[in-house]
Design brief:
Radius of gyration: 14 Å
Strand order of the largest sheet: 1-4-5-7-6
Strand content: 35-45%
Number of strands: 8
Shape: globular
CATH architecture: Alpha-Beta Complex
Order of helices and strands: EEEEEEEHEH
Distance between the termini: 9 Å
Structural class: mainly beta
Length: 153
């Protein structure tokens, strides 16, 4: 089953971009990432966004998604994704792991050890990553978060 990710911060971005809750404003620039996350000089190591219509009940916001890709994206791009797993954070702000069709990987451990370490350090900076779940657990989480046919590609 494919879902659609909306990209907020493309890989390489140095600014904190977030969807505005006022739909007229689109995306907001919240300043340099490195002010909040100094890891990697604040440079986003992977495409970051959210899965539309799937709400994280802990933070009452869209479910975050990290998209592995060999392609370039920009803020607001809609990307068909395949779910790979999930990073479970202590604060409940979990990060779903996904890929687009430009890469052929099956899970988090298919990436190089240096890529894995950077992702874990970057997204675990504000809250510890307590586990890495597989695809089935991530899909169950998305279903519990209300992912519907509207969130499918």
């Amino acid at each position: 089953m494919e879902y659609t990710a909306i990209i907020e911060m493309p890989k390489g971005e140095t600014r904190r971009i977030h969807l505005s809750y006022n739909s007229e404003e689109g995306f907001l620039d919240l300043g340099p990432i490195k002010e909040q996350i100094p890891v990697n000089e604040g440079v986003m190591p992977i495409h970051y966004g959210y899965i539309e219509h799937a709400i994280n009940r802990e933070e009452k916001d869209n479910v975050d998604v990290l998209v592995y890709s060999a392609l370039e994206y920009k803020t607001g791009d809609r990307v068909p994704i395949e779910i790979l797993g999930m990073l479970n954070r202590k604060d409940g702000d979990h990060k779903v792991l996904a890929r687009d069709s430009s890469v052929n990987v099956g899970n988090f451990y298919d990436f190089s050890q240096s890529e894995q370490m950077l992702i874990l350090e970057y997204f675990g900076f504000k809250s510890a990553i307590v586990s890495i779940d597989d695809k089935e657990a991530a899909l169950a989480y998305l279903q519990a978060c209300g992912a519907t046919q509207d969130s499918l590609a």
